[in-house]
Design goal:
Blueprint (H helix, E strand, L loop, with lengths): L4 H5 L1 H23 L5 H23 L9 H26 L19 H8 L15 E2 L2 E2 H26 L1
Amino acid sequence: MTALRPFLDRWRLCCVLVAAAMLATAHAFETFGGYAPCTLCLRQREVYWTIAALGVVFMALVRMPGGPRWRPLTCWILGALFLLGAGVAGYHAGAEWKFWPGPEACASAGAAGVSAADMAAFLAGEKVRPPACDEAPWVFAGLSMAGWNAVISVGLAALSAAAAIREHAKR
């Protein structure tokens, strides 16, 4: 736990950086790997955008007069958001493994997930299939992107709890 101390002491900043890194990774898969996001992929990103925004707000809050008393609560809130992200990612991974059905609107959100080549193929009369929430386009060590996101999010929620406990002990 000693090795984690510098990260736990700056947990709100770490959450902003981790959220930015997760979003950058998702966008890199999309841009450079050609993996268009499905509806549930986009929902997972929304959680990270929320964590990044609240992390910045919380960094300012705890530096205001009376702000240090909010330090543990901010860590608990960030942890709850990571758990929410793990839930969305776990649901997505379960849909990919056919444990349960995905949502009815299980395709990318409009033209954002459609490339120029897809549009040209569509206009030429070819059948174009948008990304589906119940198919894993990329798997590493038996886990899809959604599965890895769930594992990482659970770990980050645990670290958020450790940071909250540490902040409370400092009081």
